[in-house]
Design a protein that fits this description.
single chain; mainly alpha
């Protein structure tokens, strides 16, 4: 189960995209480190797929071994940031590598 409700994530995204609250302010309000990446994932999902993308599905996403290996290889070889290579992954924890 997600630590934050759909309504909390939705409000954070709406506030961010409307300019009501900055990402730093939202992070402070949620007790998150801006570096955690959680809000970036919310913002990206909201922007690319709409509000319903923030809903908890009740199951974990699964990715093929080849997909994960390719994401790691792309990151390690410098083809992009972790955010770039994990574009279609809901959580950075799904990628088994360090980002710094």
């Amino acid at each position: 189960m997600s630590k934050y409700t759909y309504e909390e994530k939705l409000k954070a995204c709406e506030d961010y995209f409307s300019g009501t609250r900055s990402a730093s302010k939202i992070a402070r309000d949620f007790g998150l480190s801006k570096l955690s990446g959680a809000m970036d994932i919310w913002f990206k999902l909201y922007q690319e797929h709409g509000p319903t993308a923030l809903l908890h599905t009740g199951k974990n996403a699964t990715y093929t071994k080849q997909f994960k290996i390719q994401a790691v290889l792309d990151f390690v070889s410098g083809k992009g940031s972790l955010h770039d290579v994990a574009e279609n992954i809901k959580s950075y924890q799904q990628i088994p590598c360090e980002s710094g």
